[in-house]
Amino acid sequence: MTIENLFAISLFPYLAFLWFLTKSGKTPKLALRGFYVLLIFVFITIPAGIYAKIHYGTSLANVDWLHGGAEFFLTLSNILVVLGFRQAVMEKEAEK
To answer: How many domains does the chain have?
Structure first.
């Protein structure tokens, strides 16, 4: 099994994870948006990796401007998830 196949297969459990989070209705909205932004990261990383391979003859990790642009969405995703759960914890503490 190649890395590309493993990457593609791993998308299905993540989509199921998102489906269950969304369906439960218990995930803070901002955190849920963060989890969805991770999909943007994935869908940007794939063409960026292909572009890096075709035009630069190397992997995405070796082309700083492409890699940084893709990683921005991973960082944004993480920030949204953390802020969403932080907000939920603060709201729960305020209820006490």
So the answer is: 1
